[in-house]
Amino acid sequence: MNKFFQFVKNHALPIAIITGSIFYDFFQQFAFILPVSMFVMLTLSFSKVSLKEIKFKKVHFMLLAVIIFGALGAYLAISPFNKILAESVMVIIMCPTAVSAVVVTAKLGGNAPNLVSFTILANIAAAIIIPSVFPLIEAKGMTFLEGFAAIIQKVFPLLVFPMILAEFLKKFVPKAHEFLKNYSGISFYIWAASILILMGRTVKSIVEKPENYHIDILMGIAALIICIVLFTVGKIIGTKFDERISCGQSIGQKNTIFSIWVAGTYLDPLSALCSGFYIIFQNLFNSWQLDKKRHADEKIKSEK
């Protein structure tokens, strides 16, 4: 029995991906609890991060330039051939960092405050650029201020409130803060449970949409290429600043729920499909990274 639980602990993420994909119809119905699970997960994670550690650095602006110019450049390059595919690629690259990326970064031994700093910056940039540029591509009748307010309302409460709560507990209820800090590792398993639901929603959207296998294949390939490129570029840039892990997660792990909303709000709704495929690939990549880290840690222990 102990071996079974150890196996589940070591492979929580791939188990969640496979289970959520197979039993998608069951797990997708629990999507309403995702905001709550994310809030709890981030509160636990932020209990180990101080607001004093949140600083914008040169590397953050380099990463921001990659996603802004990368998104616009990809759209201009692909749109003459396939406009929907171009919109799909653009929205994924421009999409800000997933708030849950802090959990993976901490688990991989990366610099969580560095990632949180970029996440804030990326979300601010998205709130300005998306309502400024995207309506020029697909006119949906939303003004800049309406779009800006909608994005701020959609993203920032989930990102900022857990940070404020963790800091409040640290100053005024230190025992509660210490409790959260001691059990912050639970956030990884909350995230794994959330993956069950996300995979359920993703697979359902792919399986039950109108048949169009040509665009399915194109978007699946595009999502895989983008995932590989973003994680690789992030790690290359991060290596120069001794922030390889946090920088890779910063531009590689995307808030795909947000990108699906953006696609449906500003662009052709079909462009959201690519974000669905990206959910699968980024979580497979994270699973591989975590497994590699676990094997490396076990090797170090065995050599001592």
Can I get a quick summary?
With 304 residues, the chain is mainly alpha-helical. It is built from 15 helices and no strands.
- CATH topology, anyone? Na+/H+ antiporter like fold
Give the termini separation: 27 Å
Radius of gyration: 19 Å
Characterize the overall form.
globular
Note the run of SSEs as H and E: HHHHHHHHHHHHHHH
Query: What would CATH call the architecture?
Result: Up-down Bundle
The major beta sheet can be summarized as: none
Helix content: over 70%
Provide a count of the helices.
15
Q: What's the CATH class, please?
A: Mainly Alpha
Could you tell me the number of beta strands? Answer: 0
What is the mean pLDDT?
A: 86
Global structural class: mainly alpha
Query: What is the count of distinct domains?
Result: 1
The share of residues in extended strands comes to under 5%
Protein model, in words:
The mean pLDDT is 86. This protein is 80% helix and 0% strand. The longest helix has 32 residues. Helix 6 packs across helix 15 and helix 9 crosses helix 10. The chain is an all-alpha fold and 304 residues long. It has a single domain, classed as Na+/H+ antiporter like fold (Up-down Bundle). The radius of gyration is 19 Å and the shape is globular. The chain is built from 15 helices and no strands.
List keywords for this structure.
304 residues, mainly alpha, Na+/H+ antiporter like fold
Topology:
Elements: H1 2-10, H2 12-22, H3 24-27, H4 34-46, H5 58-78, H6 83-94, H7 101-107, H8 112-137, H9 144-172, H10 174-182, H11 186-207, H12 213-240, H13 244-252, H14 256-266, H15 272-303
Helix pairs in contact: 2-11, 4-9, 4-11, 5-6, 5-8, 6-12, 6-14, 6-15, 7-8, 7-13, 8-9, 8-13, 9-10, 11-15, 12-13, 12-15, 14-15
